[in-house]
Amino acid sequence: MKEIERLKIALMNDPGAESTSKRFGVLIPIIETPQGLSILFEVRARDLRRQPGEICFPGGSTMESEPATMAAVREASEELLIAPSSIEVLDELDVVNVYSGGTLQPVVGLLKDYDCSFSSDEVAEIFTVPLAFFLETQPERYDIAMRSVPVEGFPYDRIEGGKAYAWDSSYRYIYFYQYDGRNIWGLTAGIINDFIEKLKRGGYPY
């Protein structure tokens, strides 16, 4: 057998390496309110180690072999103290690459018979924002620069220019919404923007 044929067979037979990147699922909770359909947000408990007091959606990392959508529903049921059967999954948005590493699956879900409960271990408070607000309001958008910074021990002596090497910079958008004194920003605001753009492309509201 020719060497090139062995190479082709090896490429064809490879099942692929198991992914070691973290996977997360978050729920965009939709509820019916006197103001019409609204999005529910959490304020993270202020004694949490990561991002205390920030506004977010319920969610978290997947368990072993767990689909990200299932993780979103599981985490939401734990944080909002509701049964998973009380969450009707409506859609999955495009997967987001998380800057800190891994991928995130936003899931749109309708909360049924929700009585505003939540786990105080993880959530300081909840609030809702009418869907109409986001349909009518463009988010503020700001750019931030992402620069490569080699860590200690990097082999500068093996690259042209050494420590003076001209690393490329990249940029990403950070979105902000302001509603009733609340500052919704960052990844959460970006997910909202993607959700609203999808609704508009689909012709909502009719």
TrEMBL record:
Its cofactor is Mg(2+); Mn(2+). It comes from the Bacteria. One of its GO terms (molecular function) is coenzyme A diphosphatase activity. Gene3D superfamilies: Nucleoside Triphosphate Pyrophosphohydrolase. Keywords: Hydrolase, Magnesium, Manganese, Metal-binding. Residues 21-152 form the Nudix hydrolase domain. InterPro entries: CoAse (IPR045121), NUDIX_hydrolase-like_dom_sf (IPR015797), NUDIX_hydrolase_dom (IPR000086). Pfam families: NUDIX. This is Nudix hydrolase domain-containing protein. It comes from Mogibacterium pumilum.
